[in-house]
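Q: I'm writing a short explainer about Polysaccharide pyruvyl transferase domain-containing protein for a general audience and would like to include a description of its predicted shape. Could you first generate the structure from this sequence?
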Amino acid sequence: MIKMKISIINNYPGFNKGNEALLNSILTSLNDKFPDAEFNVYTYDLELNYSIKKDYIRGIKVNFHRELGKIGINKKLIRTFLITVSLLLYRFPGNIKIFNGNGIKEFADSDLVISTGGDVLTEDYGPRSLYSCYLNILYGKLLKKPVVLYAESIGPFHNAINRRMSKIVLNKADLITLREELSEKNLKEIGVNDPIIKVTADSAFLLEPADENRIKEILNIEGPGIHPGPMIGFSVSSIISDYGFEGIENKSEKYEMYVRTISEAVDHITGKYDATVIFVPHVIHPRHDDRKVANDIKKHIKDISGCVLIEGDYKAEELKGIIGKCDLFIGSRMHSTIASTSMGVPTIALAYSQKMHGIIGKMLGQKKYVIDIKELDKDKLISKIDEAWSDRESIKKDLSARMEDVKNLSKQNAELVYGVMARLKKGI
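A: Of course. Here's the predicted structure. Afterward I'll give you a sentence or two in plain language.
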């Protein structure tokens, strides 16, 4: 048995609980296939990432390093240049290394490079984000490492330059696993056909929630306003409004429209169903803090006595456990809806990109309960909430019937990685 050294790139856990759910479930799956593997995770904003303060995640040894490739200006550009040259030197014998810190040696010594960021390989977040992710992938190929894109949503690519660049970079991968079929279509359209390509499922479907006692402890701390009766959860987002409300051009006005739409839905829920409404934050970055959005919504709610805002910084497993307590969930964050559906909670997904449509809509058969942000308004959201509430028992049964197959697809990600490495490395 060979001890593997695995580098994970393009994942931003800690402040992004969706990425944390991806990372933690991937670590568990890969550690099952490669016992005692050494994991190095390359990310950014380390000072905001609680995970780097821990040497182990779910009992697995993990080392965190600052992201290697970052397209930017001034110091970022200089640092990226030095890292690129230093990695290039690792291809040649000798010990001349001009920039040997920050996990460069660990990356150069790795047996496998895995990219897993959910949907970072897209135009949705701008070219600089996309090109930074591609640079990290190319670093792996520069050092002649096997590179795997693990349970990703990829594309679509509309810009001609991005299409060409994506074709070149993605064709260099050894294996691409995708979490929905729309991504496979996107890859075919731009001519990506060299790697092994398989449609599997998001790895976070395998994430185990925190234990019952821990969930009760958190709810006692955060939710003294929770009363007997139903509980309906919300995941909100500071960026989703940018993609909707097409009749409005100003981003601040779009955001205000989103806030008011959610607040009116909350008023409807508390008035009609006498339910506790709980806001579960999935991103807590200072620039994009779901807790701030929830507080902005709270200002417009008529009766806040039945509303609970989770204010603490909790692990992805803990948030999944909280979401699992809900009788209905409305999610603007992808992995909040993966958490809810995998726990059998009837879910309304607010979609700004293909991932919600492909995963929640098609794979889980919940197309009826996916609302595109471009079509969101108060009446549509309230109507869909009422419909899902009335149909909640049927939805639970449907999700339960599908989930075993979906989780088996999730498990295939690590199995496919093992297969690739078995062919490349004799003796595994």
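A: For your explainer, you could say: The mean pLDDT is 91.
Q: Perfect, that's easy to follow.
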